[in-house]
Amino acid sequence: MNIMDLYKEDRTILSFEVFPPKKTSPIESVYGVLEELSSLKPAYISVTYGAGGTAADNTCAIARKIKEDYGVEAIAHLTCVNNSKEEVEAVLRQFKENNIENILALRGDIVPDMPPKTDFKHASDLTAFIKSFGGFNVAGACYPEVHPDAKDEVEDIINLKKKVDAGAELLISQLFFDNESFYSFMQRCKIAGINVPVEAGIMPVVNKNQIQRMVSLCGASLPAKFTRIMNRYEHNPEALRDAGIAYAVDQCVDLIANGVSGIHLYTMNNPYVARKITEAIGKLL
Ligand code: FAD
To answer: Is any atom of ligand 1 closer than 6 Å to the C-beta of 172?
Structure first.
């Protein structure tokens, strides 16, 4: 199915993200999570792509399983910073053989001890390459609070337009905790002539370690309201989980009321949290 068909109606769609198990765990260890998430009937589930050798195999196998065994559409993520053209071509052939039709084309993070390969400098290069390979619908990532490598928001939005011009038909945002940052990003998209659907990335924070890790990784700013909740309940895991879910629901309600194209829930492979949020907002979509 072409993922773009989901955005034809004037309603907000709900999608999920999952990640493959660590290399030390068998792939089957994620199947229970997939089954529970699929039963919530998201519009699609996206599967992240990790660095290193078996990344494509696991992403591909999980995306295929989501489609074939659980009847939910899938998007496979694909990064290019550590791949040559030949390696990307091999992955695209593998995706095709496994009936994957939708790809989230990413540059990937540049890590200090792994010098990037030179065939693809930006996600826009990968996007153009996938489009010329043919047979895939391509989505891209975007950053309401600006990608950390960009000089400023103007440079970042100009670069995002290049990605859309290269063939990205859908954008999925980095997580954020302040909806106002998403709304001003949407204004910048409009000014730049970026008219594709943009899904808002929402991460329900359900434990304190998760928030510290996430913020150091992606640099999301923390509104005072959010910090107060985290500080108040940091020593009460159940209360923190419930407060984190309530905060995410509050964000979603406001986004839906503002007519967002989609909410992309970073589930962290936690079906309990995904269920609570789906139940809370299901009738609003
Ligand atoms: P790009 O779009 O290439 O942007 C990176 C930087 O380059 C930005 O500063 C941008 O302004 C600049 N730039 C972009 N295009 C151009 C151009 N044409 N000319 C000049 N400058 C340009 N990482 C993983 O390893 N695996 C995953 O599965 C994964 N999934 C993700 C899903 C989502 C929704 C998001 C938001 C991120 C995900 N990431 C994942 C993280 C992502 O790989 C990093 O954020 C990475 O640093 C940037 O990837 P990108 O595709 O956004 O890069």
So the answer is: yes
Please identify, by atom number, the ligand 1 atom nearest to the C-alpha of residue 19: 28
Closest atom, ligand 1, to C-alpha of 143: 36
Percent of the chain with pLDDT over 90: 84
Residue 162 sits in which domain range? 3-284
Total count of domains within the chain: 1
Tell me the pTM: 0.97
Asked if residue 153 has its Cβ within 6 Å of ligand 1, the reply is no
Convert the pLDDT of each residue in 180-236 to its tens digit: 999 999 999 999 999 999 999 999 998 878 877 777 777 788 899 998 998 899 899
Q: What angle do CA 126, 34, 210 make, to 5 degrees?
A: 75
Q: Which of 119, 138, 159 to mutate to test the pocket of ligand 1 (most atoms within 8 A of CB)?
A: 159
Domain harbouring 124, CATH code: 3.20.20.220
What was the pLDDT predicted at 208?
Answer: 79
Q: How far apart are CA 271 and CA 40, in angstroms?
A: 9
3-state helix, strand, coil in the chain (%, to 5): 50, 15, 35
